[in-house]
Amino acid sequence: MTCLIIGSGKRVEDTLIPALKIVREQIYLFSRNNEKREYLCSRYNVEGLNDLFDLPKDVTKIFLAIPNTEFLDYVKLLSKMNLDKADLFIETPIIGQLKNFQ
Hints:
single chain; alpha/beta; Rossmann fold; five-stranded parallel β-sheet; 5 strands
């Protein structure tokens, strides 16, 4: 299986990538923080993406591990990328009034 992780924080580094490596997932990592992305890709031997549109079409899982203030923008972007067969996992709880997410 192929998965995409969006984000490069501590939970990605300490939990998400190691867990996916145990179950032998093919991992792609996207982060706006180029330095952190390169570090994590080197440390865990995963493939980094400079642009989400370079993502292979066989992705089956997408993990959003980003601040909840960025969640909606990424969901809108991903919904336009023909990833109909991918499951979406949200690592960060979304807190706030529903009207803020419409």
